[in-house]
Predict the 3D structure of the following.
Amino acid sequence: MRSSSSNDKLVGAVMTPLRWAKWLVRESGFVSKWVQGATICDPTAGRGVFAHALVDVASEDGMDVDDKMLSRLFLIEREPEFLREFHESFQFKYKRTFPKQNTVCADIVLENPGRKFDLLVGNPPWVNFNDLPQAYKEQLKSVFIANGLVDDNQLLLLGCARVDFSALVLAVAMKNNLEVHGEGIFFLPLSLFQNDGAHSGFRRYSIGDTTFRPAEIWAFTETKVFPEVATRFGAVRFERDAVASYPIPYRIESGGGWVKRFAAPVGDSNAPLAVLDSELEFEQMPVPVLIDVREGQKPRQGVNTCGTNSVFIFNHAPKDVPQEFVFPLITKECFDESRPKPRKHILLPYEKRTGRPLDEAALERHPSLAAYFLSQKNQLLARKGTMLNTWIKRGMWWACLGVGEYCFTPFKVVWEAYGKSNFRPRIFGCVDGQPWQANQAMQAFIPCSSLAEAEDLLERLENSNIESYLKSLSVEGTCNWAQPGRIKRFLQFVPETKEAMLELQL
């Protein structure tokens, strides 16, 4: 797909090599149904590689692709140039004309032609909502919300939701362009099925009164089908008007072949899919025992400087700023030391009690601090991001993200949340009265009001089956290893009372 913006940027276009389009067509079994009279459509056709694949596979299997078969093959594509290139390449390759009435130039989401087909095949655009062109985002917001694909409408309205555009394209096509009990097969990012948070709405597998069941999943782990993307991806076959049932057959690429596994959510029905060796393992998997924590103990990521680490993070604590705003920053070495020592420090111009950035008047009461940030003003104002811009518009352009009163509690239970394969939380307290700070998405933590509370929480986390659950999601070594949303699934938040807080402080 291509945007209509003036700079003509591609919108999530991940072009499929013909070899792998043919692989998907063969796995689908759609060619035999096409021969027998089924209609088939690629709803985000690009340059028409799946049309080429269907014709090639049919011909290689000894079938005569006549005009009647071509009359049952359709393409929908937003970019007219792509459709023009398809018609030219089809004419050149097969020495015949593809029926022009079977190609529709339309945005599948905003200008859906409404025609239904027996089968869908393709590769919808992969791109996070917040990375779309701004004008297109504004057009899509109401569609995402109307179709229930986001749980946090506020984040979407702010323009910073992490839901993938492919989820919307797929759901709309399944509802509007697939016949009752029809089938679809697509290349898709596996984050739709195995990441927390943003895609829980998609994992309801319904849009309005239309359901669509994931019937089979192939997870690529070795082959670089799309060398230009780093995200985990696979192929998924769906059935329309069928309710999701578990476990789902889940094939993992291994040694040039496919190993059969099984996938199902653990806990909530819209939880990420865990992958285990057998159906019996799911039956025997214990239901997670929820850990009671206070409402103020939601798991958090570390401080995010929004690309300006050089302004806030130092190897040595700067001497010319008030030390009350300088905090020890957790690094990877700290997890291997019985008594960790600071190797880096972070400067946070915040009021500890409220967790809010100092306002201009408060900052000016510390002249050296105000002078330092004034010297960095241009760099700080150049930062991007909807939530950060909220602070900048309020005149507090020295703010960071991921900072609140929870950052300044005397104790934290912290774990490495990025690129790891083991869940090993540990307690961090204070250095010279200053609480340790977690570092962006590299680490996550739960704030604690006392050492006793931290020790109790640590024991319960270590005795849970969090690590085995994380490994079942196939996220070892990735940026999604143990991010807060995954750990939150094991927590149960209880209201805080004055009596309970007083007891913790004592």
